Amino acid sequence: MTSLDVDPSEILERYNVKMEKAMTPDDAAAELYPKDDLIRPIAEAIYEGEEDDTVEGLQKAIDAGKDPIALIDDALMVGMGVVTKLYDEGIIFLPNVMMSADAMLDGIDFCKSQAKEAPVSKGKIVCHVAEGDVHDIGKSIVSALLRANGFDVVDLGRDVPVDEVIEAVKKEKPMMVTGTALMTTTMYAFKAVNDRLLEAGIKIPYQCGGGAVNQDFVSTYELGVYGEEAADAPKMAEAILAGADLGKLKEQFHQH
Amino acid sequence: MTVNRYTKMAYASADDMIFGKSPNPVKAGLDLEIGAGYTTPEVNYAPRPEAGETKEKLVKEYERITRDIMERMVQVGFPAVVLETEHVQQMTNNPTWGGEVANAQKAIMEDYHDEYGIKCALRHTPGDIREDRDYMQLRGEKYNTLMESFEEVASNGADLLSIETMGGKEVFDRAILRNDVPGMLFAIGCLGTMDMEYIWQDIAGIAKKNNVVAAGDTDCAQANTAMFIAGGLLDKNLAHTLAIIARAISAPRSLAAYEAGAVGPGKDCGYENTIVKSIAGVPIAQEGKTSTCAHSDVMGNLVMQCCDLWSNESVEYHGEFGGTTVQCWSESLAYDCALMNVSLQTGQSKNLRDMMVLSDKYRDPQGYILAYDNAYKIGEAIVKDSDDIYLRAKNAAVECVNLLENADPKLQMTRFEKNALADASKALAGLTDDSDKFLSDSLEQYKKEVKVFRPENYGL
Asked: Per the UniProt entry, what are the Gene Ontology biological process annotations, in alphabetical order (chain B) (predicted)?
């Protein structure tokens, strides 16, 4: 290099360093774990994203007389609650959430296999990637976050024809549909889905986001609510459960 | 075509690397020479979605785009320009569409060249259509359609052939969301490289047959996915230290295009290109502050450091106050190039390069590693084991981690970034040096973990 040099503090600011929380993620999680000796190891295993430890903890709790279905809400969801709280507060990052979600889903499957009756879901959501678009990492994140927050997800996959989305909505009767797209050229399928839903008399929130999708575009069709971040999906679903209609959702999530 | 590995660096020292000059410049199109002592703007664009309804509408749209750019270049007195047409899927899936677009664009460019003498070239980048709804289909029927697309554009006016291949992406998408560094190595360093070698030998063959240039690739599908997920300073989706490890691993993968017959210029969004240039000495396109129309960037000035073409990534064609988008962005790019070219002519280029680097070197770990002095060190780590695609990718990752662990204190990192780095370092230290073992273990693991992973896509 030439002899040029700078004092970076005069030309840039590392706001992430400046704003980083003093508490470590593990310390923050420790403050949030439940006290119950049987439940705490399960919540810890979820936080750590350890599938085997999660199932082992559940087995011990069941052996001690806990109801497997009740454990979904009382242990797995509690552990996931710790994870989502820390993620929302910026203390942990997305990969931690994804690994926790993997452990949570294994835990739910185990609980179901040990029970006679099926658990009650918070609500059903249909997820898809726009027709013509095969980029599905955004949809995978959305669907994992929704499942981790206790919603029942019908994942239609990528490059989903409009007809197939409409059929799935008619069959599954979800509380919300999500659509993701990377490309501006494929996001127009969202408008077609919107029109076909309205034609069928179905008026449910249609959360759209990803890649080149923006709020201006999503605002052009009636059912569209723009999701800027994948983490908006569970927040939007919770808002619907709390009674928010389309107008309220747009008010809350349309930030630009 | 055969695969020839790079066993040494193209430059004697990192300080020799500079924008506008490459050890192996490339002649292309209408009197243009890339990397021969001057930088050139490369304008990228996307048609309005409704233009894709029919072939006729699409051709008209690209004619408007091409004419607008060429007109603005001569109106403001710029000597050279490259246009890049990244295909919308209809153009690659229907190879004659791409051919007709290339033909129409080139006719306009030839008119401007004949009239004004402006140097110019046309790059076409077919889409990587090698997948269906459920699985990647890297070597099936869609491969043939893709090659037909290259053949059509090459025989109808495209001067530079590129693509953004997606080999390894199905494994990478899972690995990156789980901080899985060995998975990233397998996906980008091994699977990505295998696919690159396979496809670029054929693209180079088509280029040779049509007397055009096999330009290069980018790890957009993987390293850029990591960079975009990592996002800005306050985003909480991925440690930026992991994103730059993915980028370091992508360098030997993108290098594979040149080992299989490509000659440059590499694609604009390949932020790994400075590392690639240090090894292959090929000219490169880059994008940064002038691609904010497409995405934000934490190293917008720094990436100009060694560019030969300077790009805006992509902008949808529509009107702005200052003209159409392609006119506004091409003019910005061309003024940046004018400044770089003045510095080359006045002997000030290294100062300008270093000012651009110092603008962003300490802004983020990604800029720190991609600064040409560190990029060069990654290059050296790669050529050390050039014949082994696993080891050279691992070397790149290890060197990246070493550079960050021993970084200049001016680079401040969060505890989170440091922890992610420490975890990555530990994962890398636990890896075998036996390529066969790594490949067979990874194959077994990801066949189980990634339902859509099909080894036959890679000849495995």
From this structure: methylation
Check CB contact under 8 Å for A6 and B225. no
| Interface check B413 vs A, CB under 8 A | yes
* Cβ within 8 Å, pair B133-A157: yes
CA atoms B390, B391, B396, B400: torsion sign: positive
Architecture of domain A124-253: 3-Layer(aba) Sandwich (3.40)
pLDDT band at residue B159 under the 50/70/90 scheme = very high
Residue B367 and residue B302 in contact, taking contact as beta carbons nearer than 8 Å: yes
Pairwise CB contact (< 8 Å): B237 & A94: yes
* Single-letter amino acid code for the residue at B287: E
Q: Tell me the average pLDDT across B217-235.
A: 95
Each residue's pLDDT tens digit, B32-83: 999 999 999 999 999 998 898 899 999 999 999 999 999 999 999 999 999 9
Q: Which residues of B315-333 are buried (b: 16+ CB within 10 A; e: fewer)?
A: bbbeeeeebbbbbbbbbbb
pLDDT tens for A158-169 read 999 999 999 999
A16: closest CA of chain B, how far (Å): 6
Shortest CA distance to B226 belongs to which of B205, B247, B210, B212?
B247
In this predicted structure, the answer to whether residue A208 has a pLDDT above a threshold of 90 is yes
For residue B26, the SS3 value is strand
Chain A contact present for B298, CB below 8 A: no
Q: Tell me what the mean pLDDT of segment A95-113 comes to.
A: 93
Classify burial at A39, counting beta carbons within 10 Å of its beta carbon; exposed 0-12, middle 13-18, buried 19 or more: buried
- Cβ–Cβ contacts within 10 Å for residue B338, how many? 17
| Domain ranges (residues) in chain B | 14-458
Beta carbons of A71 and A36 less than 8 angstroms apart: no
Q: Which residue of B has its CA nearest to A184?
A: B49
Q: Where are the domains of chain A?
A: 23-114, 124-253
Q: How far is B156 from chain A (nearest CA, A)?
A: 25
3-state secondary structure of B189: helix
B97/B92 Cα distance (integer angstroms): 7
What is the topology classification, in CATH, of domain B14-458? TIM Barrel (3.20.20)
ipTM: 0.90
Answer yes or no: do A95 and B238 touch at CB < 8 A: yes
Nearest CB to B234: which of A16, A134, A185? A16
Residue type, B24: N
Residue from B13, B177, B299, B350 whose CB has the most chain A CBs within 10 Å, to mutate: B177
Query: Which top CATH class is A23-114?
Result: mainly alpha
